[in-house]
Amino acid sequence: MSMREGMKRGAENERSRRREEADRAPSERVRLLTSAATTIVGLWLALSALPNPTTAAEPPRAPTAPTVIIVTGAAGEEEFGKQFTAWSDAWRKAGNLGGARVVSIGATNATGATPAAGSLTDLGRLQQTLAAEAKQSDGDLWLVLLGHGTFDGREAKFNLVGPDLAVSDLADWLKPMRRPLAIVDTSSASGAFIKKLSAPGRVIVTATRSGSEENYARFGDYLAAAIIDPLADLDRDGQISLLEAFIAASHKVSEFYRSEGRLATEHALLDDNGDGLGTPPDWFRGTRAVKRATEGGTPDGLLAAQFCLVPSDFEKRLTPAQRQRRSELETTLSRLRDLKPKLTETEYYQQLEPVLLELARLYQSVK
After folding, report:
1. How far apart are CA 17 and CA 7, in angstroms?
2. 241 and 156, same structural domain?
3. Measured distance CA(180)–CA(171) in Å, rounded
4. What is the rounded distance in angstroms from the CA atom of residue 180 to the CA atom of residue 120?
5. Where are the beta strands (DSSP E) in 160-310?
6. Segment 205-259, tens digit of pLDDT
């Protein structure tokens, strides 16, 4: 064979090889893309574990510290008073661990004694505290209600020493808020709070699914423990989100009634997509909602997963802008998962790759 013929045949072989690569099955390209994405995430994990030499010289702007308002309601009986005080202490401990500004209302007078004449009632203190809070901030605002509740078919209320807190009043006081807001109502009949309080940018957690579940709710006990319990960290990121605490506490409630052989009289709900419907804990697989209240609606849980009262060391290094962008990217990932059955494998992974790449770059950029 002449040198020219050899070169010609070599060129034909190369063209043949390139055609074979171009004709590869989509599944093979998907496999390669998936491998690349896995490598990207693996590289980020390795990089994030290394010390950053610029940390001391270029400290990032820290986010505004969260505010936690803990409201302990009228106990009615001494035994309930002891429990509510213990729950309040647990929330206060968590807030202090997370560097939050903690405000306690009602804890020193939870047995039902009438406030002294001329003194500010617990209801008045709550209104005053909320009015003094910044209406726009990147700092999370937590409102935690610990106690009993009632519902008369029209208005849901949280029982306080003195005048009770009506959900319609609370809704009015919270209207000006344009900041991340979590409302945790652990009282009986608290499910009736969701409809009037639900709004975009808010997380609502209630101990019951309706106003008709009026028996004492144990959910508050388990939630106060779960908010700092490492066993509640489902995604193993070193911190417990409000979503994870909600799921863990709800499972504990179910275990209690099952072990006691009793019919459950409370069923917790979480609402954070603004539709006012809420999602029960058994609609989640891990931290992802696999069912939703309305067809095609945004699943609950995405915002609650961003609320961490005691953030990890890594979380503390995120700037407000980085936290916001991460939230947007994770929402995009969730929507992609929902679209997956309607996309080809190639389409799915082509859309997935840039999101994973940006997440990896974001995490690598954290100082």
Report:
1. 15
2. yes
3. 15
4. 28
5. 165-166, 181-185, 202-206, 269-271, 284-285, 288-289
6. 999 999 999 999 999 999 999 999 999 999 999 999 999 999 999 999 999 999 9
Domain count, the chain: 2
Contact 184, 156 (CB under 8 A): no
How far from 127 is each of 70, 117, 350, CA to CA, in Å?
13, 19, 50
Distance between CA atoms of residues 17 and 79, nearest Å: 79
- Averaged confidence pLDDT in the chain: 84
Q: By residue range, what is the domain housing residue 332?
A: 317-364
Same domain, 266 and 333: no
Residue 44 pLDDT? 45
What burial letters (b/e) apply to 249-259, b meaning 16+ CB within 10 Å? bbebbbebeee
- Whether residue 213 lies inside any domain: the answer is yes
How far apart CA 86 and CA 92 sit, in angstroms, is: 10
| 281 and 338 housed in the same domain | no
> Are residues 258 and 356 located together in one domain of the fold?
no
Strand runs labelled E in the chain: 67-72, 101-105, 141-146, 149-151, 156-158, 165-166, 181-185, 202-206, 269-271, 284-285, 288-289
Same-domain pairing of 238 and 159? yes
119 lies in a domain?
Answer: yes
| Per-residue pLDDT tens over the stretch 100-110 | 999 999 965 44
Same domain, 156 and 291: yes
- Alpha-carbon Rg for the chain, nearest whole angstrom, is 26
43 is a domain residue: no
